[in-house]
Structures are given as C-alpha cells and as structure tokens.
Amino acid sequence: MAIPLIYNVRSLRARWTSTVVAVLGIAGTVGVFVAMLSLARGFEATLVASGSARNAIVRRAGATSEMDSSVTLEQVRVVEDAPGVERGDAGALVSPEVVVIASFPLKGRDTEGNAQVRGVSPKALAVRPTVRIVAGRVFQPGLTELLVGRNVAASYVGLELGRTVRFGGGTWTVVGVFDSGGTAYDSELWCDFSVLRQVYQRPQHLFQSATARLASPDALTGFKDALTADPRVTVQVDREVDYYAKQSRQLTTLITVLGSIVAVVMGIGAVFGALNTMYSAVAERAREIATLRALGFGSGSIVLSFILEALGIALVGGLLGCVAVLPLNGLTTGTINWQTFSHLAFAFRVTPLLLAWGLLFALLMGLVGGVPPAIRAARARIAVALREL
Amino acid sequence: MVRIDGQGNGNSLIRARGLGKTYQRGGEATHVLQGLNLDVDAGDFVAFMGPSGSGKTTLLNLLGGLDVPTAGSVTVAGDEITRMSARKLTAWRARHVGFVFQMYNLIPVLTAFQNVELPLLLTHLSKAERRRHVETALAVVGLADRMHHYPRQLSGGQEQRVGIARAIVADPTFLLCDEPTGDLDRKSADEILGLVDRLVTEHGKTVLMVTHDPLAAERARVVLHLEKGVLVDTVTAGRAR
Fold it and tell me: Which CATH superfamily does the domain covering B42-68+86-237 fall into?
C-alpha cells in the first residue's frame, strides 16, 4: 500500500512558505503560456470566423492577399455567371470589392493605426449575412459615406457615428456601424466601391477581389472548376474560410512559437523552483523518509509519494495560473495583420483545450522538478538517514 | 538463551555468524564489527552496551535488515536475511521487525493514531481491522486517550510510547530498540523501560536493545558488551527476576 496522501498534503502545509514559492512559479509560467496561446487562438479565430463556408473569394492567380490582387469587370461578369452562385432578387450574389489602407489616430495612444477600407457593392450585406447594422444605416451609393465596423468606432478617434473624417482626398461621413460577430470585418470601414475608386483615382473597371455567395458549401468544387477551366479568366478561387485561415497562419505561428519560448524559459525557472522545494523537502524530511523505509515502505512507495507531492504543487500552481488568465477571455486587443498591413482587433480566447494544455504543462514541470528529489529520497542509506536531525 | 561463541544449537530465533562491517572512508578501512557471533532465543531481552563507536547501532542495523554486512550472515527464524534482495528485505522488515528509535522518529504531520497505523498499511488488514489493532496497541502503551494528538502535543515519554505502539502494532517477530530512553528524563525513561519489560514478560516479545544507560541495561535479562566491534564479555546476567 502506498504512503497515505495525507502525509504529503500536511507536509506541504507544514512547509507552506517554500510550497507557495513553487506554486507561484508554476502558476506564473502557466499563466503566461495560456495567455500567449489564447492570444494566438483569438487572432486565428477572428480571422477564420470572418470567412463563411458558403462564400468563395476570387482573386488574381498568384495573389497572396486582396492587396496584391486585381480582378477586372469582365472577370466579375464571368464569376456571376459561374455555376453554384446563389441568386437573389438583384441577380447573382457576387460582391466585387476594392481595398485600400488608410491611417487614423488610435484612441488613447499617440500613434496612428492602419485601417482597411473596403469598397463594396450594394450586395455586400447579402453576400455576408452575418454582418448586421447596429447603428445608423447603410451608405448611399455614389456618396462619400462610411459604414464602420464596431471595433473601428471603438478604436479610432473621429470614426464614431455621425463624425466626418478626411482621407484619400475625400471627406467622408460615418453613417452607420455594423457588427460582424467579432470577425476581421469589425476592424474595417466599408463604402461604395465606385466612390472609393474615384477618390483613390483607381481605374473604373478594376477590382481587387470578388466574393461570391454559393448555393451551398458543396457548390465550391463546381464553381472553382468552372472558373479555373475558363480561358477568359486567370483567377484563383478559395473558400473564404481557408483564405482567412491562411492569413492568420503566419502571425499565429509567430505568437505560438514566441509564447512557447517564453513559457519554456519561465518553465525552466519554475522547474528549478520545484526542484529546490522538493530537494529541501527531501533533506528536511530525511529522517522521516528513512523511518518510513525502516517500517517497510519500499523505494517505489517513497518515489511515488514524492512525485505525487510535486505533482500536487504543480496542479495547484497550474490551476492558479489558469484561473488568473480567465479574465483575459474576451478581452479585446489589436495587432497588425501582416497580410494586409492593417490594424486588426481581436479578443483573447481562453478555451478549455488551452487550459488543459496549461495544466499538462504544469504537471510536466512538477514531474521534472519532482523525480530527481524523489529518487534521492529513495536512495539515501536508511541507517545513516535515521540518525539525521 | 543467549550465546556469543557461535555454538548455538540452531533453534535460536536470531543467529549471526562471523558478522563483519567495514566502512571505507577516504581510502582507509574502518572495521566497525569483526567476526561477531550471536544466538538469541525467542522471548529473550538482550541489552547491548559499550562505548561510542563500538558498533552497537551498526549491529542493530544489521540484525534489523537496515544495512548489509561486509562479511558473515544473519538468520532470523530460518530466513537468511543477508542474502535477500533489497525489495525482499524491505518486505521482511515490515513483517518481522519493530523498531524503536532514540528520537522516537514519529511523523510530525500525522496523529498518534496515524503514526501507529503506518506499519499496518503494508498488511492486508481492512480499515476496521487496522483501527482495532491501533487502538489495542495504543491501549497497551497507555495512550488510548491521546490517539488524535499530534507528536508536538505529546511529552517525550508519550512520544516514545507512541513509537513503541507503532513497533508492536503489526505483531513483529522481534523488537529492536536503539537507545529508547536516551532522550528522556529518568521518570519517563523508567516508564518506558517498564513498558518494554511488560512486552517481554506479559506478551512474550523478543527485545534487543542498545543503551548507554546502566539502569536501562539492568532491566534486560542479558547484557552484552561490545568493544571495538567485538562482543568481549561473556554473557552477563541482568537484574534478577
């Protein structure tokens, strides 16, 4: 039978100062680890949620994002006629779009942030049904009016509903605010594409992308095959979800790698903390351990007992770290989307899976910090250790 | 019957033959025990005396399977423990030896009850059976009313009585007491010695005790003197019974 757990619990309590140090070390590490991962997860989720499985985005073949893409009016007509496209009262649900970057002063900071301005067709809201107007109204075609995402209104100075702003040589009025459910669109400003092209002196027959609403998610294959086989167009077709997932990959990988490096470095420190706590526990309790072994508890029981004790410290630290980062969940922050060079607001996402990873990381630290002292405890010579003070 | 001449009749409970223990320190060999023979019958109460460094505790450790000799053998109830693997020796200790230590060696974070219960956790006894055994052992040492006290809440004498209860609770083959009164005042020491005495006379226990204290040694039926690793005296009769 194993040494009773109550022995470990009470021993930890009796030496609570060094226990607390080890617990805090592990809690801090797990907190940073989970926070970094939830940052990456939030960024990824924001971009991925921007796409719909029923939408397809058409860009010039070889373009890495909308920024370096171009689609002609003739190509848009071909897209509209392609099989699988949903049709409504106004015809095929295809929104040809123009995208530019404009900078605006960020609230609470001395710097400006790049915002993505999207010139859309009047069908844009039908193509993206998740986008809802929450204040004001839609812009009127032909006028320099803006419909801004809710993060835009919150992040930039002078982009609140009813305000007037100058950029790109035009004077624009914010006439409405929309909510796209926490996606990348919430960081965008939408307006009439023809007005945007005029203001930026872009050719009138050129767009940067065309987003098509498909009849069903399964319609993509037929739609894509028809367009890629058509000699009149040289375009690439992606499911919108995949397009945004690809955009998020670079930054999420960077955050995850950097976060992991920071967590590993902190983890090494926490492991030393755990090692120190456990080694001093073993040293302080040398006679107790020797007594238990004299009474007939085997080396295996001793090792198990001390590893469980280290895991107990790690578990408490891990739980504490997880609880500490929970308030981050939903907290909005922003960064540059490197694919579009525009500011993107997104929220931390502390998911159960990330918390599980955090706890696993904590237990790993406990194990690494607990095994060497446990082995030392089991290896000490009983006859010598029995006489230790 | 206790013999140190190696001429025991083979029925003795504990038998040591040619027992030797040498420590290597900085390339120098220290012979703590040399060619020691000993025969102890069941029910004997033996005290080992001798100056510091004479090998008393080393002998006790070898007889209790806490250490392994560099020469010779120890046989207890027919089992040669000096040939056992570490794992087997651990199990053997749990079954056959009850240890009483000078510093009591109680686990400070466990109550008297929990300390006494420890050896029983290595048996197949149910929780209820363990409880009964612990209560009996604590009653034998007169601490039935202190079972939920922690060691820090007990006097030195009471702590040692808990130590004795822990040593006897699993009904071991013999008890090894290393200076059981070494840390106690005279009154408490006498109480402990009286208790050990009762274990021998009333419960038929076999006790081997190391002590510096002549008054403690007097309680034993046999006192053996160790000097420089050898049992030098012939068997000396203890206090008349």
Answer: P-loop containing nucleotide triphosphate hydrolases (3.40.50.300)
